[in-house]
Specification:
This protein has about 220 residues and is of the alpha/beta class. About 45% of the residues lie in helices and about 20% in strands. Strand 6, helix 7 and strand 7 form a beta-alpha-beta unit. The protein is globular and about 40 Å long. Bound molecules: ligand 3DU.
């Protein structure tokens, strides 16, 4: 299970070889890793298996932002599960039937809204409705909400007691701690670590910075 400790999930949007290397080095130090299309398009499910294979302690989240009809989404999640993922990410805008079907197979995080500026156009308007519609679904373990707009994290936190994972720190402009201070349990950080000269030091610095701005335990 994903337990908050460092509160850092590292997004490994890098080649499978590099993903394995960073995962091996930071396993047990960070709470989790996230892999997605960079790894899967390079090596298919085998790329996920390789990363899962080196993790002894940290949680593995597979992020394909699945957004198809229920049957197809379910079969995608089945493959992701077989490859060794502990959880996966499903878009919320597709509706609770898709989320429910996927959550029968593997624990899921639902995207409530996204971190880029364009998410204001459409996704933000659906954010509260998505969380309300998905919160009673067994297998939904949490939501993705943006550290770049902490007010959205707050909005999600008011509705749910489930986990919130928050991307947008570092390369996208949010500061370490912006997500957790607004009520997220974890921050998902990619390029600020994977593109750093020393990813281990970068991860440690980010965790220190997050700790100093942490809210009281909930
Ligand atoms: O910007 P970074 O390099 O720290 O990476 C952020 C990761 O989080 C990346 O894998 C991206 O796909 C994911 N993500 C968002 O950035 C924004 C979202 O709303 C959802 C996921």
């Amino acid at each position: 299970m994903l337990e908050p400790d460092t509160r850092l999930i590292v997004a490994l949007d890098v080649s499978p070889d590099r993903a394995v290397e960073i995962a091996e080095t930071l396993d047990g130090y960070v709470d989790g890793f996230k892999v997605g299309y960079e790894v899967v398009l390079a090596e298919g499910a085998a790329g996920i298996e390789r990363v899962a294979g080196v993790l002894e302690e940290s949680f593995l989240l597979v992020d394909l932002k699945t957004a198809d009809i229920p049957e197809i989404s379910r079969s995608i999640v089945e493959r992701v599960s077989e490859a060794g993922a502990d959880a996966t990410i499903i878009h919320g805008f597709v509706g609770p039937d898709v989320v429910e079907e996927c959550a029968r197979v593997l624990p899921v995080f639902v995207v409530a809204t996204m971190s880029h500026p364009g998410a204001r156009e459409f996704y933000d308007r659906a954010c509260q409705d998505i969380v309300k519609a998905c919160d009673d679904i067994d297998g939904v373990i949490g939501y993705v909400a943006p550290a770049t707009r902490p007010e959205r994290v707050l909005e999600v936190r008011k509705i749910t007691d489930k986990l919130i994972v928050s991307p947008g720190v570092g390369a996208q402009g949010a500061a370490p701690g912006d997500g957790v201070r607004a009520g997220a349990d974890f921050e998902i950080i990619g390029r600020a670590i994977t593109e750093a000269h020393d990813p281990i030091e970068a991860a440690k610095d980010l965790v220190r910075a997050m700790m100093t701005s942490r809210p009281a335990e909930r």
